[in-house]
Prior knowledge:
The protein is α+β, with helices and mostly antiparallel strands and 150 residues long. Helix content is 27%, strand content 34%. It contains 3 helices and 7 strands. It has helices at 13-30, 89-104, 120-125, and strands at residues 2-7, 46-51, 57-64, 73-80, 111-116, 129-137, 140-147.
Amino acid sequence: MQWHRHTFESLPKNDLYALLRLRSDIFVVEQDCVYLDLDNHDQNSYHLYAKNTEGAVVAYVRILPPGTAYPQVSIGRVVVEKSARGKELGIELMVRAEEWAWDLFERERDVVIMAQSYLLQWYGRLGYVAQGEEFLEDGIPHRIMIKSNK
Length: 150
């Protein structure tokens, strides 16, 4: 597995296409959720992704600077390609994303995610704690979760 870290400006255009395709495959097609994925946050975000030995993007996450979606740094668009699931790749993806977020910004900062409710327990294993009530985002139940690095 090869890991890549980029700003929007430094993303190779073929990789940008591949990660947008992966996001669409999972969030729109697999989850049967019609929504606008391109939300104008990608340009100011940091992009972390993994490619398999064939060079295909199989995991992706974006890091949003504090003040973009939340007062804190946030991690979103967490995706692992279907054939790459069940191999702890999602855990490695999140750990790498958290470390990069804390390196980019203040290590003491909390990290916020908007988690699909069916993944609360999975994110909980990584140290995230649910906040507030469940809500619908694009017809899918979600909860805000926060991980403190204090």
